[in-house]
């Protein structure tokens, strides 16, 4: 078996459960099983340039290779082109795109830095798996430096339809860069279809099933929905957690139910709309007043980008307004927390929450949806209420699927979830758990590697 070299903007500390972000979680779960090298940014922002050799740390079967960036790199490549241009645009938010030409220059420069660092550690038989929108030009940069190893790319976020993609400056160049990979993977069939339309219509490529012909080369494209380690998460959810147990006991005595939301505080996650839907639940079904609370964990993320500061202000004003209107001496309807919570504590919280409320306006996958399912007990499972615009909705069809722009629709689904019979909850839970087990973290790694190492085309 060849050595696997994974590259992503960030690497995760594999021994630490207190980190937010699905890429780190999904890649971590997969790499722990196969072993290999994981290269990424170390989170530092230096005032000066460093030589390209990465710093290597061994963590069990995985070698973490990290490089620093400069403050200018961080501003132009990470906050700039990646998170102020590609992120909003790929999530269909043209209104939030903030493009400056230096962002594109920084993006190319940093992809060059990643390529220089990789060239110092690559071995001839390595296979390279590159992740996410920060690193689309990396295969081209590596090929230019003489790298001939197999290279795959996985996009964790949505890939937009051609007419939206056309709004990104140099969109043709970006897609041509993608075609320098041997395999290109997406979370959903919708994303895959959007790329295939673009390459056929704009670049004149021929398609044969999921294989894209470009000049002399054949590129495999496919849909590989990311999964989680279901057993590990389920076990975490069952481990005793004193704080959660005390709070759950209190709620049981008072016969109160709990709805839970957990997200990075990102405008793509639909958090204000979610709070408005909860308020609508209290208006339309007053029997839930004092009997249900919404706990919303909103994790800090990309705070230097203005759109993120705006969404935080909006959310905090809204949760204050709902509490001001409804709270009583012994009941707070919205419990809002702006912090990162360790994943094992989240698992315990999911298990004792009667509803998992996951309503992004657009999301690549959303691992929280899968984690909520994995955390439930079969004896008394909760209900997942899931946005139709989360990638996870393509698989998790037995959730209550809602339109995150329609607060009445979400309020009705919440009411249905809170009053659903045990029998129906168990039927839905069984179907959902089967689905997340079928396509788990191991399946994701294996199916992508099968396409990359064995050049097995993915069935259309
Ligand atoms: O690294 P950050 O800028 O702090 O952001 C965290 C990660 O957010 C995004 O996660 C995506 O990947 C998940 C796993 O595939 C998926 O479930 C989710 O829908 C995506 O939004 C981003 O794509 C990562 O690169 C970031 O590390
Ligand atoms: O305070 C937090 C918030 C989130 N997460 C984890 O971060 C991941 C979020 O992934 P998801 O795909 O839902 O969204 P993303 O943040 O990647 O867009 C999940 O594994 C969560 O359990 C966490 O450990 N602590």
Automatic annotation (TrEMBL):
| Class in the EC hierarchy, top level | transferase
Single GO molecular-function term?
alpha,alpha-trehalose-phosphate synthase (UDP-forming) activity
InterPro entries, per this entry?
A: Glyco_trans_20, Trehalose_OtsA
Q: Does the record carry Transmembrane as a key word?
A: no
Question: SUPFAM superfamilies this protein is in?
Answer: UDP-Glycosyltransferase/glycogen phosphorylase
Q: Name one Pfam family in it.
A: Glyco_transf_20
This enzyme's EC code(s): 2.4.1.15
Enumerate the catalysed reactions. D-glucose 6-phosphate + UDP-alpha-D-glucose = alpha,alpha-trehalose 6-phosphate + UDP + H(+)
Pathway in which this enzyme or protein is active: Glycan biosynthesis; trehalose biosynthesis
> Which of UniProt's keywords are assigned here?
Glycosyltransferase, Transferase
Complex and partners: Homotetramer.
Q: So what does this one do? A: Probably involved in the osmoprotection via the biosynthesis of trehalose. Catalyzes the transfer of glucose from UDP-alpha-D-glucose (UDP-Glc) to D-glucose 6-phosphate (Glc-6-P) to form trehalose-6-phosphate. Acts with retention of the anomeric configuration of the UDP-sugar donor.
Family, per entry: Belongs to the glycosyltransferase 20 family.
Protein name as it appears in the record: Trehalose-6-phosphate synthase
Q: What is the lineage of its organism?
A: Bacteria, Pseudomonadati, Pseudomonadota, Alphaproteobacteria, Hyphomicrobiales
């Amino acid at each position: 078996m060849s050595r696997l070299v994974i590259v992503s903007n960030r690497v995760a500390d594999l021994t630490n459960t207190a980190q937010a972000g699905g890429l780190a979680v999904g890649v971590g779960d997969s790499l722990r099983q196969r072993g290999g090298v994981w290269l990424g940014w170390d989170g530092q922002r230096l005032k000066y340039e460093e030589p390209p050799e990465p710093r290597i740390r061994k963590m069990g079967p995985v070698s973490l290779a990290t490089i620093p960036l400069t403050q200018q790199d961080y501003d132009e490549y990470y906050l700039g082109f990646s998170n102020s241009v590609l992120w909003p645009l790929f999530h269909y938010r043209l209104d939030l795109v903030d493009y400056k030409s230096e962002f594109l220059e920084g993006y190319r420069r940093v992809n060059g830095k990643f390529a220089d660092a990789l060239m110092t550690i690559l071995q001839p038989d390595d296979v390279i798996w590159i992740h996410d929108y920060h690193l689309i030009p990396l295969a081209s940069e590596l090929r230019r430096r003489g790298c001939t190893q197999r290279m795959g790319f996985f996009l964790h976020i949505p890939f937009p339809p051609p007419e939206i993609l056309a709004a990104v400056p140099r969109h043709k160049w970006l897609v041509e860069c993608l075609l320098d990979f041997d395999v290109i993977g997406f979370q959903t069939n919708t994303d895959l279809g959007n790329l295939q339309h673009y390459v056929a219509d704009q670049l004149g490529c021929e398609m044969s099933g999921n294989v894209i012909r470009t000049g002399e080369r054949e590129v495999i494209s496919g849909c590989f929905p990311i999964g989680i380690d279901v057993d590990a998460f389920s076990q975490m959810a069952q481990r005793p957690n004193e704080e959660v147990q005390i709070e759950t006991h209190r709620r049981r005595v008072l016969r109160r139910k709990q709805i839970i939301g957990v997200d990075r505080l990102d405008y793509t996650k639909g958090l204000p709309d979610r709070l408005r839907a909860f308020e609508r639940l209290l208006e339309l079904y007053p029997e839930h007043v004092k009997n249900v609370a919404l706990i919303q964990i909103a994790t800090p993320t990309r705070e230097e980008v203005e759109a993120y500061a705006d969404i935080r202000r909006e959310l905090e004003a809204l949760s204050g307004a709902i509490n001001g209107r409804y709270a009583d001496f012994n009941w707070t309807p919205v419990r809002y927390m702006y912090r990162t919570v360790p994943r094992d504590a989240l698992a315990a919280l999911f298990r004792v929450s009667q509803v998992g409320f996951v309503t992004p306006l657009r999301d690549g996958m959303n691992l929280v949806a899968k984690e909520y399912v994995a955390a439930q007990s079969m004896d008394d499972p909760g209900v997942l209420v899931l946005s139709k615009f989360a990638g996870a909705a393509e698989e998790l069809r037995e959730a209550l699927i809602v339109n995150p722009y329609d607060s009445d629709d979400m309020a009705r689904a919440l009411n249905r979830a809170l009053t659903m019979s045990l029998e129906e909850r168990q039927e839905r839970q069984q179907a959902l758990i089967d689905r997340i087990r079928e396509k788990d973290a191991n399946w994701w790694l294996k199916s992508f590697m099968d396409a990359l190492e064995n050049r097995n085309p993915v069935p259309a």
